[in-house]
Structures are given as structure tokens and as C-alpha cells.
Amino acid sequence: MTRAFSALAENETTAAEPEAAAFPFDVLSVASRSNPAILTIAHRGFWVKTAENSLASVRAAIEHGVEMIEIDTQATVDGRLMVIHDATLDRTTDGRGVVSELPFETVRKAMLRAGAGGADAALTEECVPTLEEVLEEARGKITVNIDTKYARDLPQVMETVLRLGIADQVLVKTDIDPDADHFDILDADWFGKIPHMPMFAVRPGRFAEDLSRIAVLHAPMIEVKFQNIADLETGRAELERQNIRLWINTLDVSHCLDFNDTRALTDPDSVWGALIDAGVGAIQTDEVGAFRTWLNTRSGAEGK
Question: Which residue ranges in the chain fall short of pLDDT 50?
């Protein structure tokens, strides 16, 4: 398999999955270990033929039956929550400047660049969406993982989710320290109302212990980084006991050794397959088409 497989996989996936797959759209049902599916997490939406973090990328993920999209949000200087990853407009749009220092109208006028952006990327007809617009696009169709880029915006993000009445479709993630004597997030007024995903690094030889420490958080899913894939296996029993699904990023920038999308395009079994065999139940990827095509092939082979 070569990188050309990525483009081919988009066409194969489109043909194989013309409509969204049927599954419950509440996060707790999707994340539950009783759900046998390996979840596809579309990083910043399914953006290969559109723009990252765009409404079009949300629609594309829905069309391809993806279970969850991951999006990024941050507030403008006048307090509007926008869906954009970088601190500035520069890479992903034709605009310039720091998002948190610009008013909504300026950010709104910026047009998104195609794909992963950059000065040479073509402009799309998509503008930077608000968090509300993305959540409304997803309502009743797909679950949403929200990455709040700055802790200062977290209360507003939670207020928005609750006000829109869409908490059952949303999973909000924050970093935690498993060694903490007390998890401050337990004191947040939104905790227990919106599903939460802790993020932390797997400590060699201490994964099962750390999972026991976070039991008070009642996490439906956790996102971790690891230094040795064998450490993931040591937490399997505790993950099952707490009904926690394990999420791993195979993004090229995720730094989980060489378990990344680039290597997966040439040897998916040794990347995506090895992670699933180690107990991973959700994979966030930029290669959504290739991953889902491989998943379908793997499922077909196992069914024979």
C-alpha cells in the first residue's frame, strides 16, 4: 500500500458508504464498550476534499458514516466562540491576525483554505464557523468531541453546549494529572451534565493504577499517549471494569512512537491493527478514508 491509497480510499469509501451508518448519536452509547465498533474520530472533521474545522467537513463525516468528529474552539476578542485550531487565521484562511485579538466580524470574513491550509492552498467557499453552527450541523447526526484551545474559554463552551440542549452528543476533553490529590474538574458546575474525556500520558508500569485513580471521574472514554504499546495491555482489565473506551491518536504529530497515519498508509496492520489488538477502541486520524476502508477489509476478513 502507498500514500496513493489515501486518495483511492476516499473513492472506495464513498462507493461503499453512500449514507451514514445507523448508530445511536448519544456519546455514552457510542463510547460504551458494549458497542462493538472501532470508532473513527475524524480530526477537525473529514476535510480531505474541503477545509478543516468547516461545516463542509462535518457534513462529509456524516455522509461517510463516521461516528465522531473532533473540533477546536476558541473565542474572539468580543466573546464569540469560533471553530478554528490555530491561534491565528494565517494558515487556514486568507485572513491574518490572532483570533483572540480580533472581533467576530473580522474572523467571519476570512475564507477557509482547502485541506490542511497553507499559503498555496486554494480558497473554499467556507467561512470560519461558530461553535453553535457546528453543533447545529451535527445535531441528531454525529457525535462531537470538543477541544477547547484555551482554558479561559471552557466555561463559555460548556454554557453553549447546555444552552443548545446537545450535551448528549458532545464529549469535552481536558488534561488531567492522575497523581492529583483532587481533580478540580469535579468542582465545575457543568461536570456530570456533559460527558468528559480525561487526557493524560500512560506512565510505564502504572497504567492500571492511574485508571483506578481516575475512577471518580466516571469517564466514558480516555485519550492517552504512550511510550510502549505493551503498557496499554496492562490497563485492559481496569478499562473493562470501568467501561472506559481507549482513544489513541495516529496523527503524524501525536508522538505515540511511530504509530502514525503516514506509516499506517503503507502498513495499516502494524499501526491501526496493533493498536486495536492492544485494546484501543477509538482512533483519531487525518486519513479517514484509508482507515475506514481498512477497517471494512479487516472486519470482512474476520467475518470469514
Answer: 1-22
Q: Is 196 a catalytic residue?
A: no
- Tens-place pLDDT, residues 172-218: 999 999 999 999 999 999 999 999 999 999 999 999 999 999 999 99
Distance CA 7, CA 258 (A): 22
Active site residue 85: yes
- Indicate the domain borders of the chain: 4-50+59-69+141-303
| pLDDT given for residue 302 in this prediction | 74
Mean pLDDT score across all residues of the chain? 92
CATH architecture of 4-50+59-69+141-303: Alpha-Beta Barrel (3.20)
Residue-level pLDDT at 303 = 63
- Residue 50 neighbours by CB under 8 Å, 6+ apart: 56, 57, 60, 114, 124, 126
Q: How much is the pTM?
A: 0.91
Q: Where are any strands of DSSP class E within the chain? A: 39-43, 68-75, 81-83, 111-113, 123-127, 143-148, 170-175, 196-201, 221-225, 245-249, 282-285
> In the numeric block, which cell numbers belong to residue 47?
476535510
Q: Positive or negative, the Cα torsion across 34, 252, 8, 67?
A: positive
Which of the following is catalytic: 85, 182, 196, 218?
Answer: 85
- The residues with which 74 forms a beta bridge, in sequence order, are 82
- Of 194, 256, 212, nearest to 27 by C-alpha is 194
